């Protein structure tokens, strides 16, 4: 169970640091002890890397750029991106992604802007406003599973307990690395990730079929009313491939 702490014990060295009861009253000890799974801190199996592109060497290269608003918070995937030439990219477009990296928004982290980097974004660029986790051994922790776990209520409670209240809630790489994750056997992790991926694929298939039916009904009305003058309607298509968004002049959405 998750309970609320009623007393706090702090090392004397921490007394000079900001401590807010409302952000530090999470007690998940009982849940961890009775889960039946291995409990590990993220720092035990992953690193928060800050590998960045060389601006001079990449000045003429064109790359895909992912910022926080490009993450689908409902499905936990990269839904869009922008393409830039290196010398025309926003200042925050510096972090190099690798397949399997976990992107975690450090701004308003409880929103769930978290995703595992798919192969099509390998060696592409993301904003420095992500904590970018790289798992050391995929035979111990599956990237897809970790991304899903970090979108659970248990992870959200831990994000909440680590938030620093500035103009908006933020967390640091250190906060993320100090989070506790429950790990079933690696085969079960992979199964969970695969089943989720299949469910998302089915979601888009059903969505597209629904739009085909809706468009067909609209076409019937269009043809009835306008006969030969009727427009031919096309059903929109949605899928797992990220779309290219219009390039914005400002980075106002960067920190959202």
From TrEMBL:
Superkingdom assignment? Bacteria
Q: Which residues form the signal peptide?
A: none
Keywords in alphabetical order: DNA-binding, Restriction system
Q: Please tell me whether the keyword Cytoplasm is annotated for this protein.
A: no
* Domain Type I restriction modification DNA specificity span(s) in chain numbering: 35-194
Which terms in the Gene Ontology molecular function aspect does this entry carry?
DNA binding
Q: Which InterPro entries match?
A: Restrct_endonuc_typeI_TRD (IPR000055), Restrct_endonuc_typeI_TRD_sf (IPR044946), Type-I_RS_S_subunit (IPR052021)
Q: Name one GO biological process term.
A: DNA restriction-modification system
Instruction: Give the family this protein belongs to, as stated in its UniProt record.
Output: Belongs to the type-I restriction system S methylase family.
Q: What is this protein called?
A: Type I restriction modification DNA specificity domain-containing protein
Q: Which organism is it from?
A: Arenimonas donghaensis DSM 18148 = HO3-R19
